[in-house]
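Now for our specimen.

. . .
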Amino acid sequence: MKKIYLYIITLFSIATIIILPACSKTSNLINSDSVIQPPVITEDTATIYLAGGCFWGVEGFFQQIPGVLSVESGYANGIGENPSYYDVLGGDREFAETVKITYLPYTVHLEELLLRYFQIIDPLSVNQQGNDIGIQYRTGIYYESEEDLQIIKKIYDYESKRLSSLLAVELEPLKNFYKAEEYHQDYLEKNPKGYCHINLSDAFLPLFPGPDYVKEDSQTLKDRLGKDAYEVVMEGATEPMFSHEYSKEMRRGIYVSAVTGIPLFSSSDKFESGCGWPSFTTPITTDILSYLPDSSLGMTRIEVKDDVYHLGHVFEDGPVERGALRYCINGLSLKFIPEEDLDSWGLSDYKLFIR
């Protein structure tokens, strides 16, 4: 992994960390619509190379995904060196139009990027995507890391099983990659009405069908959750330190919203922080949480919410080797589903996020 330092926002001073509790009441923010971007403090970037037909659309699609730092159009896994677009167009040199994605692995999981990739391709089509035909338009996943290969195979096998078919998507180590000509870079940004075989708005679709949650009135929700949990999710209250069993829960599984049932965190991203509340390094997908500024109690913090429901806060004192963030979440706002029970809960797809 390459190194990069991003300090988007400073949440608190060391003195504040020592003196004040990690999660505190923020009822003044429950109805705020001042949504901000999540913080990023990391040293690590990773790359993956994806061929999905004409690279203009694939590039534009992945540029919209949070945690993706850059997307570069180019030519991969062909014969010879430094091909031009017209060399590739002929097909004789067997290059595939490919995008190089550089991303933050502790902001967006590789699993999510690959699942998004399969959203926009026809994985059964040979040498054709959309109206584009030729070997250069074949699909392929090209990797540099053996660690990535394990994840890629997991998603690859999942898609093959889902479609009950062998896939036409190449799965190979990266042999070579050459950046395409400058006029191909950011093509759809330069040419908003340019050709694109992909619906770019698909980047905002959920990865999997969500639970059938119907919003409840306040009294019904309070009766279902109980008084303490209701005060957490609706009024921004904080449960006492070490009061919830999830602060020590380390079994494999998925943590869903106690209100909506939407998956929020994987056990693979949970760690023992010693703070007294369940702690995670990363949400399960990049589109699942909302972030709001919180200046209560004399601190500058970021509140984390599931839709309109309070979960906790995100801080910058997490494990450095895992992105340095700590999602400090009230156990009362969550429900833990063990891995062996995910099928019966209709959440089997989310096993993909348990490493």
About this structure: The chain has two domains: 11-30+211-353, 44-204. The first strand starts at residue 2 and ends at 3. The domain at 11-30+211-353 is CATH 2.170.150.20 (Metal Binding Protein, Guanine Nucleotide Exchange Factor; Chain A).
